[in-house]
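Tutorial handout. Part one gives the primary structure; part two gives the three-dimensional structure as tokens.
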Amino acid sequence: MAEMKFEDALKKLEKIVEDLEKGDLSLDEALKKYQEGIELSRLCSFRLGNAKKKIDLLVKNKKGDFELKPLDETKIEQ
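Part two.
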């Protein structure tokens, strides 16, 4: 599953949630889908974490020069 692209994992996770919300799966099927969903959720979270680490911001310092700084997630509007 680690080879899967983020977008594909997210689509598959959305489908699993939709299937589970319908409520017409047997207990065994629901448990299998739930387990797969947890794995996909972890994969997506891991990929997002790695993407955040790669984001840098170009900011102007007090001297007027530009420098790269890591993204400060506390200042992101949600």
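Part three, for discussion. The longest strand covers residues 56-60. The chain has one domain: 6-75.
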